[in-house]
Amino acid sequence: MKSLKSIRTIMAGTMLAAAGLATLGTGPAMAQAVPDDLTTMPAVPTTFDPPKTAWGDPDLRGTWPIDNIASLPMQRPAQFGDRFWLTEQEFAQRQEQANRSDEAYQAEDENDTIGMGHWVESDASGRRTSLLVEPANGQLPAFTEKAQKLMAASRTSWTPNTEFNWLTDFDSWDRCISRGFPASMFPFRYNNGIRVFQAPGYVVIALEMLGSRVIPIVDKGEGQIPGEIEQWLGHSVGHWEGNQLVIETTNIKTGDSATTDPYARNGSPLNMATMGVPPFNVIPTSKQAKVVERLTMTGPDSIVYEATYSDPEVFTAPWTARLDWSRNDDYQFFEYACHEGNVQPRNYINASRAGREQAEGGESGGSK
């Protein structure tokens, strides 16, 4: 069973080692040509003519795991300045780190064991410095004053020194409900499988971790639903612009009857390598939140995925992330059994209550 907290506990002792892999890049089948000017990001190639389904749509079906970019940071580390790309010397250093990751994986296979070599797998064949491509500085736009106040008051197990007294003191991912949106489309340390299915009038994006998306294909501008209807992964409708699939998502979950917060919180960090204060899993979501995704096949085994996020009540400007997907139909999905055996919320609550009682001079009361 995969309890979120138990996995986090297993990983805790090796997180510092994993941090050394925090800048590993994209896979070989989807490597984008690196321009001479490392401060420029070329447009997404559109010259590839993808195969078509029996009903005539571009065929995106397949397994597209993003585990090989799981350590690429959301925001650009400061040492890379205004560069979208690594230098050849930096790339060589990244490759050396990746080789050590490969060695750990192979050693576990040889010893018939499973450890961090399998949990945190990285590939160094890409030269990107971050997932963000807009703003050009590689940093998320500033938060609004309202968003900053909500984030400061947020409750999640990822926030240091949080006191826990009930389930509402945990975010939606702590409670095995959802990573939120668009966070669910971004890589994490594990369970990064993505599968695309298609049928006439529909595209389905199945996620290995908490949820799948059923996306009807409609005429542009159609398929909207009343704003009162909200979903953890939002309401998505798609249309084709040539060979490019465009998905517009609104009606993203903004509130939870179990909490007094006016906004829902993203259920997990956008990317562990970018966690700061406050952590990114407490970014609020307002009713104005909207995501526009574009999926473009750039070769038989490669898709460029772009997501542009706007929420004027939270961010002072929109931002865009670009991810390179590589086909791997041999990738195995594993059950993300998060609810089963997830005893840690109770443990957090009991420990927090006991600590408060001890501080007040009373006896530990445990569960109440």
Report the radius of gyration as a whole number of Å: 21 Å
Mean pLDDT over the full residue set: 80
Determine the fraction of residues in helical runs and give it as a percent range.
10-25%
Order of helices and strands: HHEHHEHEEEEEEEEEEH
* Ends distance: 27 Å
Say how many strands there are: 12
Shape: globular
Sheet with most strands: 6 strands, antiparallel
- Contiguous runs where pLDDT drops below 50 for at least 5 residues: 1-30, 256-262, 271-278
How many structural domains can be distinguished in the coordinates? 1
Structure class: alpha+beta
Q: Strand fraction band?
A: 15-25%
Number of helices: 6
Q: Give, in spatial order, the strands making up the sheet with the most strands.
A: 2-12-11-10-7-6
Give a structural overview.
The chain has 368 residues and is α+β, with helices and mostly antiparallel strands. 18% of the residues lie in helices and 18% in strands. The protein has six helices and twelve strands. A hairpin with a 2-residue loop joins strand 3 and strand 4. The longest helix is centred in the N-terminal third of the chain and has 23 residues, at 88-110. It is globular. Mean pLDDT is 80; it is low at 1-30, 256-262 and 271-278. InterPro entries: TAT_signal.
